[in-house]
TrEMBL record, chains A, B:
Cross-referenced CDD domains: DHQS-like (cd08198)
Organism of origin: Rudanella paleaurantiibacter
Enzyme Commission designation: 4.2.3.4
Pfam families, A to Z: DHQ_synthase (PF01761), DHQS_C (PF24621)
3-dehydroquinate synthase C-terminal domain sequence ranges: 197-320
Lineage: Bacteria, Pseudomonadati, Bacteroidota, Cytophagia, Cytophagales
Name of the molecule in the record: 3-dehydroquinate synthase
NCBIfam families: PRK06203.1 (NF004852)
Amino acid sequence: MNQLNQSFSVRFTYSISFTDGLFDSHNTLLADFLAAQSTEALRKKLLFVIDAGVLAHFPDLGDQIRDYFAGQTNVELVDDLVTVPGGEPAKNDPALVERIIDAVDRYGIDRHSYVVGVGGGSVLDLVGYAAAIAHRGIRHIRIPTTVLSQNDSGIGVKNGVNYRGKKNFLGTFAPPVAVFNDYRFLRTLDERDWRSGMAEAVKVALIKDAPFFDWIEANALALANRNEAAMQYLVYRCAELHMNHIAGGDPFEQGSSRPLDFGHWSAHKLEQLTGFSLRHGEAVAIGMALDCQYAHLLGYLSDEDLNRVLAVLETLGFALYDPALDQDDSAGVLRGLGEFREHLGGRLTILLLRGIGYGEEVNEMDETLLRQAIHLLANRQPTLALD
Amino acid sequence: MNQLNQSFSVRFTYSISFTDGLFDSHNTLLADFLAAQSTEALRKKLLFVIDAGVLAHFPDLGDQIRDYFAGQTNVELVDDLVTVPGGEPAKNDPALVERIIDAVDRYGIDRHSYVVGVGGGSVLDLVGYAAAIAHRGIRHIRIPTTVLSQNDSGIGVKNGVNYRGKKNFLGTFAPPVAVFNDYRFLRTLDERDWRSGMAEAVKVALIKDAPFFDWIEANALALANRNEAAMQYLVYRCAELHMNHIAGGDPFEQGSSRPLDFGHWSAHKLEQLTGFSLRHGEAVAIGMALDCQYAHLLGYLSDEDLNRVLAVLETLGFALYDPALDQDDSAGVLRGLGEFREHLGGRLTILLLRGIGYGEEVNEMDETLLRQAIHLLANRQPTLALD
């Protein structure tokens, strides 16, 4: 009678569907999913939470959603579509978590009902968090509306909000029950959002899949010029690699290794230093350039590979330097190393590329060499994109 | 390129250790656990959150904890031991969640550090919730100090706080990394807390393990008279059955079935109707008596089995009736059925006993029969406990 040992596994499954015009009346994808999930003769409720930025581009979206569900018998749409601001502000205001929790309470959304988030990554992070803590987890469906959320942040298992300016300080690991990637939402993205979402695709290619990097390289100009077919493949393949990584590794990040955070230690800090005027993907592009330049100085990465990485990023339209990199005081970008270490839990673990498609983890970074890498990026002559 | 399917399992392991005097200087149980967890040459931090009710009985506990960790090199105790009120109030005040989150932030507690909760079930629910949402889940250790928390609420995978008076409206499923059951804490419990924790042992015996019920029946007087050896076995065996249930079933309750909620639909409502003057276990004892009386009226449960159940509860010292059962208006106990249905997610699922050790789920309850069952309990002649 000294000890009992507990051990169990919990299985999580969900699908990511790709479509064009999810709420078109003839598109039965979402309705079919809900019907298939309906195991009992009960009407499940659906509570929608929508990114105000998406509504600005699609003012009829609310009516479309109401029309879509008007004829359906096995689900009951909550008529009050909750709207929240888009972008990082969605994660900075605790009142927005409260607004969603309050709607869950007011409309009697139970654990077998659904909370549906429609928006960019920040809104999905907020909605996923509120859904995860209400009733110990309400089923949630994600409808990502940006490149970044469709290929990366919206399809994973994390959620979170900021706390006193600290990114994702509050959050959980809670997989959605389904993700619906609707290409239609990508058409209205502005240039910067279209582009910045591609940084995570470059990232996952660089650390996991050289042929995908070759493909991005070959299609970089088409992608920069908003070729839709190219973007659809990029989103699909990036999502696929991302999902394989989650399933094959440590989905709830119980260990210390975080390969998907390649380029992110400085990116998080750059976003903060620029007051989020840099988009996440723009910061990640700079972060990857910095860590590749550093890996090259360290002798990890060949001249050719370094040049290919930097040229692809530039062809896609990314700047590889921002003055915030040189904000050289105690609050500068190098402080991001310490914050990243704390976020990981004590031991710094940074992935550096050894070649296109594979990397190696290191546990320290040399600040002198990092400053040298920053200097090289600051003085770099950009690749000329020719089309 | 129409769909990607994700599927993965996450494994959770933890142990429950049983001891007497966890923080005695010669007791290496906790220190050994922390040393074994320490995979890297890093000092992990420990943030303690302690139930004020426990401190009232053990005013030296803080010093004992500080002494215990003073000589240890692989962990660093945060000197500020956070204190929170015990009992249900711990779960009613959102400022207490904030207080713990704030300490996590202030003392740089990362995902590989530990938050340690010491207290009754309510405090552990609060601490577990704060630990689960900070940094997407900090490792948490539970040190339950009541019978109820040592054999049931403190050893499971749930946490939660109340929201606008709604019980466990906010919470997650997040297993601890370890539980330490220290019998010493049980010695200072008042009569009601000593007794009320036994209700969950009766419950789990009734629905899962007839031999354990036989044992409780044979030892009911000893238990009522605070025999320590009997209580230690009761706690151990109840914890074991509880853990087996979690591991063997649906740990994160993705389905609708909730057999461990036997007797709980009315118990939750009775706690609320009495403003929590009824302890949880006292309410569960009444709830079980009610559902057994109902099952008997329905022909599910024999005379003999009904009488054994009611007699054991009475011998343990439980009242089987409370006037709140007859608060016969729209806010009365029968409303608990609807609230329980909503909590489960739409479909009412109630376990009724068919005999000692096994039950059957039903999806509706007859209100007339329930009122009759309440009437029988109100007019019952209690079993005389002879010793």
